[in-house]
Amino acid sequence: DLHRRRHSFPTRRSSDLTRLYLHSSPHLVTGHDTPKIMRHVVYALLPVTLWAIWQFGTSAFLLVLTVVLSCVLTERLILRHPAAPRDMSAVITGLTLALTLPPALPLWMGAVAGIVAIALGKLLFGGLGSNVFNPALVGRAFVQASFPAAMTTWTPAGAAGRFTELIPSTLALPFTSPDPVAAWAAARLDGFAGATPLAAWKFAGELPGQGHFLLSPGVSGSLGETSALLIVACGLYLAVRGMLNWRIPLAVLLGAALVSTAFGPFPDIGNGVLFVLTSGGLMFGAWFMATDMVTAPITRRGMWVYGLLIGALIVTIRFWGGASEGVMYAILLANALVPHIEALTQPRHYGRKPLWRRS
Q1: Confidence tier at 149 by pLDDT (50, 70, 90)
Q2: Minimal CA–CA distance to 130: which of 121, 138, 139?
Q3: Which of 26, 160, 287, 346 has the most Cβ atoms closer than 10 angstroms to its Cβ?
Q4: What proportion of the chain, given as a percentage, has pLDDT over 90?
């Protein structure tokens, strides 16, 4: 009977036969492939990058260009495949890494950071989708440990002549002492202070006005610390398009706010918590670093635990650590705990106890 039914259909040419494809899961797709997601992340990072260049001038532009090119070329040379950089993941690594660096960083140090981010932070673990730690933060951690003086040399935003001349240290030769930056900046901006708002608060007890929190006009810091409002707007763009899970940045901000409220050294200052949330790299780390799809948990409860942990660690390092900033260390530590967080927050099967309650 089966033989008769199989041959009861009209004869068709081989070119008209419907093909059957067999493949593994997932069988339901959202229409967001890797290049498309990466492309939209670049779109979201461009306003932040352009605003940073406007604030810090030509030196910032050259630093961003150098870091991005070093990331793309490193991936191209190591993988030795013409299509290697086309998914734009190396461009995202370069942009996020550059936005965590100070504008006065010598270009050769930025190139070193880009090479380390791709070679050690990404490709050493197997490439895109296999890395354990955020590659951009791996590159930043390397230059932070290797060149601490250059990584803590700050120039203010909005300096006069920032588009007509370079910061003296920008073109410093490798392994040479760059020209003093403080004198250059002081001559171009009244009231220049070589410390970031976080460093000024922690080591001098100074708390800037509320306007500095959200827009950061004329404030020293990394390229990605220029505007908390702009970072939130760009992050929301990705969240609305479904390319960023809103739970992670919300959990980071919530964790930082809770610890700041409970243990903060400024209970009588109304904008103290706002200062913690919008100063330094917390906002950029919450929206563009902690949300990395490869290094963040995939379970919903895990995202909350992961984000709360990062926020609590950031404030802990800021309040009681030796450094004024702790975003990089908090995210890298949380990245290392992601496998354990996912194992403990897996959805429970019906009739089975959760993993943490099993004997």
Answers
A1: confident
A2: 121
A3: 287
A4: 42
Would you say residue 271 has pLDDT above 80?
no
Provide the 8-state DSSP code for 193.
-
* pLDDT tens-place string over residues 12-59: 555 555 666 676 666 666 666 777 888 899 999 999 999 999 988 899
Distance CA 139, CA 152 (A): 16
In this prediction, residue 84 carries a pLDDT of 59
Q: Which of 18, 22, 56, 283 is nearest to 166 (CA)?
A: 56
Task: State both tokens at 240.
Answer: 């609305």
- H-type alpha helices, the chain: 2-6, 34-56, 58-79, 89-98, 107-119, 135-146, 148-151, 182-186, 197-204, 210-214, 228-240, 247-263, 272-278, 282-284, 300-320, 327-344
Which residue bears the tokens 């030509």?
A: 58
* Cβ contact 259:267 at 8 Å: no
